[in-house]
Amino acid sequence: MDELSIKIKIADREYPMKVKREEEERVRAAGKWINDKIRSYREQFGLEDKQDLLAMVAFDVAVAKLASDEKHSVIDQAVVDKIGHINQIVSQAIL
After folding, report:
1. Which of 1, 23, 31, 77 could form a disulfide with 8 if both were Cys (CB 3.0 to 4.6 A apart)?
2. For residues 22 and 4, is the Cβ–Cβ distance under 8 A?
3. Number of domains in the chain
4. Full-model pTM
């Protein structure tokens, strides 16, 4: 396994971590996204408390994850329904 040691700076604090080489770009993009959201909230709401800003970012991520999970659940159910319908058609055609 090819791992890199990198440092990601979030809210003015550095976090050393080891990541797989193929995940480095995604990890760095996530760190940039978090910092961009923090900056946006700081400007939008005039907040300076890093804990409040990080909590708001975490809340955004949780809401987005739940929405994504719901969407995937609906898609998964639609696929299961379609497969069931196709199975029914094939079964009728075989008989």
Report:
1. 31
2. no
3. 1
4. 0.76
Contact 23, 17 (CB under 8 A): no
Q: Is 94 helix (H, G, I), strand (E, B) or coil?
A: helix
Domain span including residue 29: 3-67
Longest distance between any two alpha carbons in the chain, whole Å: 71
Rg (CA), the chain: 22
Tens digits of pLDDT across the chain (95 residues): 689 999 999 999 999 999 999 999 999 999 999 999 999 999 999 999 999 999 999 999 999 999 999 999 999 999 999 999 999 999 999 87
Q: Is residue 35 part of a domain?
A: yes
